[in-house]
């Protein structure tokens, strides 16, 4: 199957593509070759409880650099892995799959760096599992990768995507199965070292080697198959389709952490969500309403405000000169308990002015700019809290899945595209006129 540049993908959707299979490398035997032998044995064990991502088993004593408690004993500590050696270390068992991947960064047309074509993935190494992808979703993180944010030029080509719902196909050698082969699962998108003080504490997102799938040595999920840490697997919540479950690992986990961990909101609290319509803002709306919060959204788009009201939010106000007075009027002059901020410069001043005394603004993005003016007098005089937030822990992801199942929450999906038409999905993401998540379905 020929590589398809995103410009072609942005043309007629669903068109037939023909061409010869490209020669991508020497260490493979073709699509489906790995089916011709027996699968590596999944092993045995139970990883249903809390733990850390196991990359390479190294039981015994480990001294964390700078640790006040050297020589502590920790079972099954991971070591570092050489992702590029996977194929050779496992006998060259590579698989050729259709994927959406970045070939480079920069330029006037970011999507010119996107291709849909064939890529190689290795057999899963120890501590990892190969999934047959059922659905994946797009995030602004994928556009940032195409921009080159935090990604060295030497790391391309790189498969995009960090969210996935799939079917367990095979485990790496000596890897206890966290869920049976054939299970339909959703994967936590965060990978950490598993051995530092942060990983051994309550918040592994502070790990210095924190990465998402599609970052560092890890390939992404926008492909027919992907390889993820075995301990990152969770059953798809009852009542959700794979397409809905694939919406959860990034946008919904980020919103969950912002609302309930960082923001500390409880039923009856009031939250203002800056921005409306995107994956993160709609996730925050849905989770906040399910938790019994009073929800106000702010957007410059009248149609997005009306759509948010249609989804059940209590109030929708226009961003701009009247935003502060409207929010204060809605809260009897007190202000809101928490503002969820992902817009940045355009809304920052208003976010600080609508908070009640002791309130918090929780920041998870800055799409309009990252250097707003600071009103420090207001911050200290009203004892406001400014909190950064990024993704979430495995424990938080488990709690999110439990909440979704208990409250029968269904993630909002804007559009569903086939993998072969991923270029059109990226075009819609770049345009920004969304109402929910963009899903890529893999047959």
Q: What does the secondary structure layout of this molecule look like, with pairings?
A:
Elements: E1 4-5, H1 6-9, E2 60-61, E3 73-74, H2 86-89, E4 94-102, E5 114-122, E6 128-137, H3 140-147, E7 158-159, E8 165-171, E9 184-187, E10 190-191, H4 197-200, E11 211-212, E12 225-229, E13 233-235, H5 242-245, H6 248-262, E14 270-274, H7 279-290, E15 294-299, H8 302-310, E16 315-318, H9 323-330, E17 336-341, H10 348-353, E18 355-363, H11 376-381, E19 385-388, H12 394-407, E20 413-418, H13 422-431, E21 437-441
Parallel strand pairs: 14-15, 14-17, 15-16, 17-18, 18-19, 20-21
Antiparallel strand pairs: 1-5, 2-3, 4-5, 4-7, 6-8, 6-12, 6-21, 8-9, 9-13, 10-11
Q: Explain this structure to me?
A:
- The chain is α/β, with parallel strands linked by helices and 443 residues long.
- It has 2 domains: 4-50 and 79-247 and 411-441, Medium-chain alcohol dehydrogenases, catalytic domain (Quinone Oxidoreductase, Chain A, domain 1), CATH 3.90.180; 251-388, Rossmann fold (3-Layer(aba) Sandwich).
- Helices cover 23% and strands 23% of the residues.
- It has 13 helices and 21 strands.
- It has helices at residues 6-9, 86-89, 140-147, 197-200, 242-245, 248-262, 279-290, 302-310, 323-330, 348-353, 376-381, 394-407, 422-431, and strands at 4-5, 60-61, 73-74, 94-102, 114-122, 128-137, 158-159, 165-171, 184-187, 190-191, 211-212, 225-229, 233-235, 270-274, 294-299, 315-318, 336-341, 355-363, 385-388, 413-418, 437-441.
- The strands form 5 sheets. Strands 6, 8, 9, 12, 13, 20 and 21 form a 7-stranded mixed β-sheet that branches. Strands 16-15-14-17-18-19 form a 6-stranded parallel β-sheet, sandwiched between helices. The chain has a 4-stranded antiparallel β-sheet with strand order 1-5-4-7.
- Helix 6 packs across helix 7 (279-290) and helix 6 (248-262) packs across helix 12.
- The radius of gyration is 22 Å and the shape is globular.
- Mean pLDDT is 83; it is low at 1-92.
């Amino acid at each position: 199957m020929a590589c398809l540049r995103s410009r072609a993908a942005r043309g007629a959707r669903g068109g037939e593509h023909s061409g010869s299979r490209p020669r991508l490398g020497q260490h493979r035997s073709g699509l489906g070759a790995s089916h011709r032998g027996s699968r590596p044995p999944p092993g045995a064990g139970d990883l249903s409880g809390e733990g850390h991502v196991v990359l390479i088993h190294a039981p015994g004593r480990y001294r964390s650099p700078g640790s006040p408690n050297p020589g502590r004993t920790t079972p099954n500590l991971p070591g570092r892995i050489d992702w590029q050696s996977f194929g050779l270390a496992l006998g060259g068992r590579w698989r050729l799959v259709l994927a959406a991947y970045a070939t480079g960064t920069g330029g006037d047309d970011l999507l010119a760096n996107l291709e849909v074509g064939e890529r190689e993935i290795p057999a899963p190494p120890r501590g990892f599992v190969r999934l047959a992808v059922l659905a994946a979703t797009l995030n602004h993180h994928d556009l940032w990768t195409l921009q080159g944010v935090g990604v060295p030029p030497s790391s391309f080509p790189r498969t995009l995507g960090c969210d996935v719902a799939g079917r367990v196909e095979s485990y790496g050698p000596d890897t206890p199965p966290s869920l049976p082969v054939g299970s339909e699962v959703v994967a936590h998108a965060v990978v950490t070292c598993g051995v530092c003080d942060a990983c051994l504490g309550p918040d592994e997102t502070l790990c210095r080697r924190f990465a998402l799938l599609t970052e560092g040595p890890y390939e992404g999920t926008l492909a027919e198959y992907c390889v993820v840490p075995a301990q990152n697997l969770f059953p798809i919540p009852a009542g959700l389709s794979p397409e809905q479950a694939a919406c959860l690992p990034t946008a919904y986990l980020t919103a969950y952490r912002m609302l309930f961990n960082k923001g500390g909101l409880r039923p009856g609290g009031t939250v203002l969500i800056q921005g409306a319509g995107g994956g993160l803002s709609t996730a925050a709306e849905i989770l906040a309403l399910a938790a019994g919060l009073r929800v106000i959204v702010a957007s410059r788009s009248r149609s997005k405000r009306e759509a948010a009201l249609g989804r059940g939010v209590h109030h929708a106000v226009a961003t701009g000169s009247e935003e502060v007075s409207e929010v204060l009027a809605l809260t009897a002059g007190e202000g809101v308990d928490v503002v969820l901020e992902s817009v940045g410069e355009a809304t920052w001043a208003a976010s600080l002015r609508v908070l009640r005394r002791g309130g918090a603004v929780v920041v998870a993005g800055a799409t309009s700019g990252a250097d707003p003016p600071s009103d420090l007098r207001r911050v200290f005089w009203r004892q406001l809290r400014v909190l950064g937030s990024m993704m979430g822990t495995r424990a938080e992801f488990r709690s999110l899945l439990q909440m979704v199942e208990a409250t029968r929450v269904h993630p909002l999906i804007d559009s569903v595209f086939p993998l072969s038409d991923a270029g059109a999905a990226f075009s819609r993401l770049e345009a920004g006129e969304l109402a929910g998540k963009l899903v890529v379905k893999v047959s």
